[in-house]
Amino acid sequence: IEDAGEGQHEGFIGDWITPVKQALSFQARERANFDAARGLQSLETRIARAIHQSAGILFPLPPMVAEAVKDADEQAYVTEVKHLIPRHQAKEFNTDGMPPAVDREILSHIAKLNAVDTLMKMFAKHFASIDRARSMQLVEAPIQ
């Protein structure tokens, strides 16, 4: 890694998109006692609010929905660690207190359902209905 060129680290630690870096830098310059963790949380909240508003979804989500999303996200994480990460590296990922991984047999059945195509159709249908609702002024227009 030491000899990696500019930007090569992103293959190991992921890429932070420029708007996130700029927003955090701006927050750091504006506040004397800047806390990066709180700054990132604040930025995440602002982005989530904008996405929800654009899609016509309540923000914040009702607690029961938010908890279900969190559980599904954690279960997906644990499933990825169990089934996609090599065993010798999986021990580096903390899954304590999270729901169990989805069983491999269930995953194989899900794969046969062509879920990507189904999800794309559902998203298209949802966003078409959002556009229709906006045109009838039943939901807020997206942030420009």
Features:
single chain, 144 residues, mainly alpha, 7 helices, 0% strand
Topology record:
Layout: H1 10-13, H2 18-30, H3 36-55, H4 63-84, H5 87-90, H6 104-112, H7 115-135
Helix pairs in contact: 2-3
Q: What does the model show?
A:
- The chain has 144 residues and is an all-alpha fold.
- 65% of the residues lie in helices and 0% in strands.
- It has seven helices and no strands.
- It has helices at 10-13, 18-30, 36-55, 63-84, 87-90, 104-112, 115-135.
- Helix 2 packs across helix 3 (36-55).
- The longest helix is centred in the middle third of the chain and has 22 residues, at 63-84.
- 0% of the residues are buried.
- The model has no long low-confidence stretch (mean pLDDT 78).
Would you summarize the structure shown here?
The protein has seven helices and no strands. It has helices at 10-13, 18-30, 36-55, 63-84, 87-90, 104-112, 115-135.
Mean pLDDT: 78
Helix content: 55-70%
| Biggest sheet architecture | none
Alpha-beta content class: mainly alpha
Beta-strand level of the residues, as a percent range? under 5%
**So what's the overall shape?**
extended
Radius of gyration: 20 Å
Q: Would you identify the regions where 5 or more consecutive residues have pLDDT less than 50?
A: none
DSSP strand tally: 0
Number of helices: 7
Please trace the helix and strand order, writing H or E for each element. Answer: HHHHHHH
Distance between the termini: 41 Å
